Amino acid sequence: MTEHRSPDARFRTSLLEENDGPATNPTDNRTMGEIIAARFSRRGFLRGSLAVSAIAATVSPLALISADEARAAESSAFAFDELEAGIDDKHHVAPGYDADVLLRWGDPLFADSPDFDPTKQSAQAQSRQFGYNNDYVGYLPIDGSAEHGMLVVNHEYTNPHLMFPGIVKIVEKDGKKSAEVAPLSKEQVDVEMAAHGGTIVEIRKDAGKWQVVRDGKLNRRITSSTEMALSGPVAGHDRVKTNADPSGTKVFGTFNNCAGGVTPWGTYVMAEENIHGYFSGELPADHKEAANYKRLGIPEGAYEWAAHYDRFDLAKEPNEANRFGWIVEVDVNDPTSTPRKRTAMGRFKHEGAESIVAKDGRVVFYLGDDERFDYVYKFVTKAAFNPNDHAANKDLLDDGTLHVAKFAEDGSVEWLPIVFGQGPLTAENGFTGQADVLIETRRSADLLGATKMDRPEDIQPNAVNGKVYVMLTNNSKRKADQVDAANPRAENAFGHIIEISEDGGDFTAAKGKWEVLLKCGDPSVADIGATFSTATTANGWFGMPDNCAVDSAGRLWVATDGQGPKATGRTDGLWAVDTEGSARATSKLFFRVPIGAEMCGPLFAPDDQTAFVAVQHPGDGGEDWEAFGRPSYYEDLSTRWPDFKPDMPVRPSVVAITKQGGGKIAV
Description:
Blueprint: H1 12-18, H2 32-39, H3 42-45, H4 49-58, H5 66-75, E1 92-93, E2 97-104, H6 123-126, E3 134-141, E4 148-155, H7 160-163, E5 168-173, E6 176-181, H8 186-195, E7 197-206, E8 209-212, E9 220-222, E10 227-231, E11 250-252, E12 257-262, E13 268-272, H9 290-295, E14 327-330, E15 340-342, E16 350-357, E17 362-369, E18 372-374, E19 376-384, E20 400-407, E21 412-417, H10 434-439, H11 441-448, E22 453-454, E23 456-461, E24 467-472, E25 496-502, E26 511-519, E27 545-550, E28 556-560, E29 573-577, E30 587-592, E31 598-604, E32 610-616, H12 625-628, E33 653-659
Parallel strand pairs: 10-15
Antiparallel strand pairs: 1-30, 2-33, 3-4, 4-7, 5-6, 7-8, 7-9, 10-11, 12-13, 13-14, 14-15, 16-17, 17-19, 18-22, 19-20, 20-21, 21-26, 23-24, 24-25, 25-26, 27-28, 28-29, 29-30, 31-32, 32-33
C-alpha cells in the first residue's frame, strides 16, 4: 500500500504559490496602507489639487452623472468589445480576436525531442520539452522582426498533483473531501527539477499564425540542474561556499522563476521568487544563518527535493539557500553560455526585473519583493548602456546601486541606497561588507526604514509617459487599526496599483512622486472601497493585480492572480486599464483563463499585433476547493484544458492572441 501524507485542505505547492503564510517582516516600519490612509485623511483632502483627484476617485459610482461615463468611454485608449467575465473550463478572448495555444507543457522544443507522454515522464525527456507553469514571457526579435524572434519563458514551479498519475488519494470526513498525497519518487522529483527553469525557443509567424521552430539553433532549456555562475559582490564569499562548491562561484540551477525581463542589450533575466519552499531540514537556533533564513521563511519544505538531494537539506548544506533568491541573466545568443546570478541586484523573493534606459544611458531595473509587508526596489547600473557594443554591456549588472523605496504621506517617494557603510548598514549591525548587505537585502531594507507594501509584484516603467506602475496584489494580513475611513482597506483582499513619477522624468532619480491609480475589487460593494471609473462595467473590474505590460503605445495591461469562485466569482484574466485623461482608471476585460488558472505574462510583440499570455496552473483548486465541490487532481480534474482529451492532463500553456484579419490589438 502506498504511504500518503496527512490530509490537507490544499496541496502544498498550491499553498506556496498563494503565498498566504505568516509575514516575515519583523520591523515596525510603516505600511503602505498606513501611509495611504494618512495621506488621504480628511485633513489631507484639504491640501490641494492632488487631493481633489483622490476625492473624485473615491466617490460612490451612483453619485456621478452619466456624462462622465460617456466622456471616459470616448477618451479610452482601447478599442475592443469587452469580454464577459465568468468561470468555466475554457479560455476566452474578446470578440474579433483569436487566442491560439502556442506552447504546452511537454511540447517538444528540439528536432530530437520525444513527444509528450504523461504516463512515461522522465527528467531526460522533460529537459528537451517545454517546462511546467509558464510565467514570464519575453520576446527578442531576430534581425529586428516582429514576426520572427526568440521567445523566452520562465517555468516558475510544479504541481505534482496535476502532473503525476496515482499519487493522490481522496478522503472524506464530515462531508468534506481532502487529499492525501504520496511521497514522490526520486524519478518524479527529477522530472520536477527538469520542469523548472526556463525555455528559449525560436518562433515565427506564418500566414498570421505563430509556430515553434523546433530546429532553431538557439533553442535551449534551463533547469534546476543547469550550471550557473555567481557574479558580482557576493561571488566567492564564505556565506555562499558549499561542500560541492568551495569556491562559492558555481551554482547548479534556478527555480521558482516568476516574472522576469529582457535587457536593452538583448539578454533574458529570470527572477527567483519563492525559494523557501525548496529547502528542508533545520539549523540550530544559534547558527549564523538562522535569522537570515527566518526573514525569508526558509525552510518551508513544500517540495521533497531534500529527500533525494543533500544540497536542499539545511542540516547538510547550510549555505545552499544563500545561492538562490537572485536575478539570473542568460545570453540567448549562445545556447552554451553559463547563466549568471547577478548578486548586485539583491537577494529576496524577486517578482520581475523590468528595465528602461535613463536619460544618461544608465539602465534602471524595477524589482518587487512578493510578500506581504515587503518592499519595492530599483537597481541603477553604474555604467551606461552602449547600443553599439554588445560586449561592453556584458557585465553591466555586476556593478550598480540597489535602492529601496520609502513612500511618504505628502505623495513623495525616496529611493534609499543599499550600500555598505551608509546609514545603518555597518559593522555595528553585523555587516562586514557589501556581500553581507546583499545576501540579507531584506534586513538591510528593514534597517533603512523602507515602506512595508502589500505584496509588490510586477513593476513596469513606461517609456511613453515616463511613469512607473507598481502592482500590489493584496494583503489579507493588514489590520484594521492600520487604516481609517478614508482608506477602508483592512484585510486588503483585492490589492491596488501605484503610479510613480520620478523627479524630472529621470528614472535614476533619488526621489519622485506617487499616486494611487486604482484600488481594486468590486466597486458595487461600498465596503471594498474600489476606485475604478464609473465607465468600468461589471465585467471590467478586477482584483489581485499581479503581472502587467506596457505596449508600444504606452497603454497599461494588467493580469491577475487569485480570482476565482470564492474570491470574486470570476477567473483571472487580462484587463486593459486607461491611465490618462477622463478615462483614467477605466478597465475592460480582454482575455480570461480556465478555471483554477492564473494569468501570467503578458507580452506584446514589437508591432502590437500579438499579445502573448501564459496560462499557469489551470485546473488547480487552491483555496476554491469548496466552491468546486471537490479537489482537482490528475485523475479528476476541473478542466482538461487545453487538449480536452481523457488521456491528457491539464497543461500550462502560452497563448498567442491576434486580431482576426490582422492589425494592432485594441486599436
